Amino acid sequence: MDSPPPFPSSVPPQIPAPKSSAGKWVLIGCGGCLGLIVLGVLFSVGIYVVAMRVIQKTDVYEDAFKRVQNSAEVQAELGTPIETGWAFSGSVNYKNGSGNAEFTVPVTGPKGEGSMNVKADKSSGAEWKYSTLEVEFPDGHKVDLRGTP
């Protein structure tokens, strides 16, 4: 007598699938990429902060900001104390006693805000000569500070 087959011939036996570690590798790979992105952002922010601090120590920046702080017209608009913000844009180039500067820095006070716009050139042994030194307010009003000592 023939005995029946242990499994029906049309259905193959079920073999459990092996556990995959691909999910772990995906997480490790994504974590590595995310880590590199975070490091890149931190590096960029660090470079920006260092550049801003270097520019804040230049004589053209210090002179321009003192003129902003000492201006009665700017004080009336912003109040006191007047401080600078971190959203700096522009550059200062200085070599062998001569150079040029072109930058914009936000300035704020208790009454409002504005932006300090500076364009200046310096010849060797001379003072900075400002072609632009002004504070611009959000309403478009500008205060020219080139004549302010």
Descriptive overview:
The chain has 149 residues and is of the alpha+beta class. It has two domains: 35 residues; 86 residues, no CATH class. Strands 1, 2, 3, 4, 5 and 6 form a six-stranded antiparallel beta sheet that branches. It is elongated, with a radius of gyration of 32 Å.
Assign an overall shape: elongated
Unreliable spans are none
* Structural domain tally: 2
The Cα radius of gyration reads 32 Å
The percent range for strand residues is: 25-35%
Alpha-carbon distance between the termini? 118 Å
Give the number of helices. Answer: 3
What features would you highlight for this structure?
2 domains; six-stranded antiparallel beta sheet; 28% strand; single chain; 149 residues
Sum this structure up briefly.
With 149 residues, the chain is of the alpha+beta class.
Fold blueprint:
Blueprint: H1 22-56, H2 59-70, H3 72-78, E1 83-84, E2 89-95, E3 98-108, E4 113-122, E5 129-136, E6 142-144
Antiparallel strand pairs: 1-3, 2-3, 3-4, 4-5, 5-6
